[in-house]
Design goal:
The structure holds two protein chains of two kinds.
Chain A lengths: L3 H20 L3 E3 L4 E7 L5 E7 L9 E5 L13 E3 L47 H12 L4 E5 L3
Chain B lengths: L1 H46 L4 E8 L2 E8 L4 H11 L8 E5 L2 E2 L14 E9 L5
Parallel strand pairs in B: 1-5
Antiparallel strand pairs in B: 1-2, 3-4, 3-5
Classes of the chains: A alpha+beta, B alpha+beta.
Chain lengths: 153, 129
């Protein structure tokens, strides 16, 4: 029987699949709780995100930068450089990313957030679905806070 | 010992080659998609009247497609899309075209240089923390 997380992910992947197909973003669903997606940045570089949706939405997904195959995660060479959401620690800095919480990941910039409250966190805003999160990352990779180069390896 | 080193080196090369192949396959799929989109665009552009713009907007609830007059205000586009895609009207949304945020929303589509067809993204307001 599917878990609540699996049901939720299945439901939220519907709009994401539609957008990815339209934009030519390579979306690979690895299993019911994990996928990775290729997103182009404004300089033409393609960045890859690996999403771990275990325990979603009790907790937000863990969004890892990864390589094209999804084999390696969190390598400096695979992470964009920038500011705002594109934090210099190498994690997406938002309440909707599990890795932004210091209690979960030592690179997490925030020890002042409680992970169980991520949907109520004012910084989450309306960004509460998988498609919305991916769209926000795409907008950041194509906006002024993207600094073009990848982080040094 | 030397053989072990050589095998390790070969394995590393193989891994690298596999990663490069994966990247190339992604690029190939992307190129195929671009060709299909271009053909579709030609067909769509033939149907759009003068002073109209076909917008394809990626929203958190999926794609919205519609034709708007060039002099439609961005705020009007956002309101229509929020309604049609059943997005929360409690959230404030921003519309993006590539690097450009379409602000202020009192401006018209044509004032941002949009013509004939454009792909936009609609997301809730946020700047990262």
């Amino acid at each position: 029987m599917a878990t609540v997380a699996e049901f939720t992910v299945a439901e939220e992947l519907v709009p994401l699949r539609e957008i990815a197909a339209s934009r030519g973003w390579d979306l690979k669903e690895l299993d019911t709780l994990h996928f990775h997606i290729a997103l182009p940045a404004k300089d033409g570089t393609i960045f890859y995100l690996f999403a771990d949706c275990g325990n979603y939405k009790v907790q937000p997904p863990a969004w890892h930068w990864c390589d094209a195959s999804g084999t390696h995660t969190d390598r400096a060479a695979d992470r964009p450089k920038g500011s705002g959401f594109l934090h210099s620690n190498g994690v997406i800095c938002a309440p909707w990313n599990r890795l932004a919480y210091k209690a979960v990941d030592s690179r997490g910039p925030h020890d002042n957030w409680t992970i169980g409250d991520w949907l109520q966190n004012s910084a989450t805003g309306g960004c509460t679905t998988l498609a919305h999160m991916v769209l926000r990352v795409f907008v950041e990779l194509n906006g002024p806070r993207f600094a073009s180069a990848r982080l040094a390896a | 010992m030397e053989n072990i080193d050589l095998i390790k080196q070969a394995e590393a090369h193989l891994q690298q080659a596999e990663a490069e192949l994966e990247s190339a396959e992604t690029a190939e799929r992307s190129a195929e998609h671009d060709v299909a989109v271009a053909l579709e665009e030609v067909k769509e552009l033939e149907e759009i009247k003068q002073h109209e713009i076909f917008l394809e907007i990626a929203t958190p609830n999926g794609l919205f497609r519609g034709i708007f007059a060039e002099n439609t205000k961005v705020s009007e586009v956002i309101a229509i899309v929020v309604d049609k895609k059943k997005l929360s009207d409690k959230d404030t949304f921003e519309l993006f075209h590539g690097e450009t945020e379409l602000q202020p929303t009192s401006r018209t589509l044509e004032s941002f240089g949009l013509k004939r067809k454009a792909k936009l993204e609609l997301v809730a307001t946020g700047s990262g923390v």
